[in-house]
Amino acid sequence: MRDYDRIANKITAVLFFSQSLSSAGFIAAFTVNALVAVDLTGWTAMAGVPGAIYVLGQAGGALVWGFSFEKIGRRWGLALGQIIGVIGSAIAITAVVGCSFLFFLTGLVMVGMARSAVDLGRFIAAEVHHPEMRGRAISKVVLGSTVGAIVGPLLVGPTGELATMAGLPELSGPYGVGFVVLVLAAILILSGLRPEPREIGRELSRVHTESGPAQETRSLSAIVRQPGVLAAMVTMVFAQMVMVVPMSITSVHMKTHQHPLSMVSLVISAHTLGMFAFSLITGKMTDRWGRLPVIILGASVMIISCLIAGPSVNLLPLVIALFLLGLGWNFAYVAGSTLLADQLSAKERAKTQGFNDLLLNLASAGSQVGSGVIYAFGGFMLMSLTSAIMAVVPLAAVVWLRVAQANKQSGTNI
After folding, report:
1. Which domain holds residue 295?
2. How confident is the model over 53-78, as pLDDT tens digits?
3. Count of domains in the chain?
4. What's 371's DSSP letter?
């Protein structure tokens, strides 16, 4: 009989550290992507293109990894994702040195694919834990992004100086961070992610009795029609949209009202703190209170944050609003991810979770474009109100799921 708790804790620790490493590389690159675009093209209008290409790489990668993880295993799938990120980082460095914008975007697609593999690590942690521990397992992996969010930007300046000393363009330096840390993450995953999490998840499904889905493998179309799966996916997709829309345009809004760059950075830092720093608390809440109450809490906090942000032009209310926006997203993201994991049998997890993250990233890309359109048309107030309305959708999804569950228990067809 395996010691599943010890194995699960070891796997989660490896996923946490690999997430911390890779996130530092992703965020270091993200910090300068727009600057590289302007530098390589000479057009300010191209500043948003790298972000969109990067997210499209994430979206496509999520679907690829979702199906690949089931065939080649979680360990080799995650490691391959990091290796593709290493290659993408090398291409980005070469493109900056050679002044090739198209080559640079090619590298970002590959880095985006690597990011999507890393993001699926939260579900790997969930599948090796018992149901009552899944929320905390997911939250521990998500917490790794906090390390990256703090360390990544701090490495931009020093690596830029190192690049200059080596006779390379300053903006090539941050992509060296991704190259190095993704190599380390790949080594950590290959050496430490043992035994294979896919097999542990399957064993747990056999030895642990759950009042969850049947163990036969359903088609993806059949899975996504299940009320619990739909509610989980809707929650995460709309939480992502609500979070991205104000976040994408807050810096422009603040610049319009004459806030210095240091104050813009403070607001975004507060937002990032809300997104990741309290993940462990969110995981405990999800396991103790239940998935649906935490989703309700997350949606409610996001609505409040959007209503605070709408009329705000001063620093303090914007800091509060963006912090709450990140915190509400964290509640909905962790609880929604856990709810989705609960609905799936062992062989259904990878493909369904990959499809979920495909939708998540497509929603993120669309929201970045939409935020600018709404802001240009109606200003920050209309954009914030639009986000608040979107945040009602997860609440509606929870109500619908509870009605569906009640009808199923009473034998009523829905």
Report:
1. 218-414
2. 888 899 999 989 988 998 999 999 99
3. 2
4. H
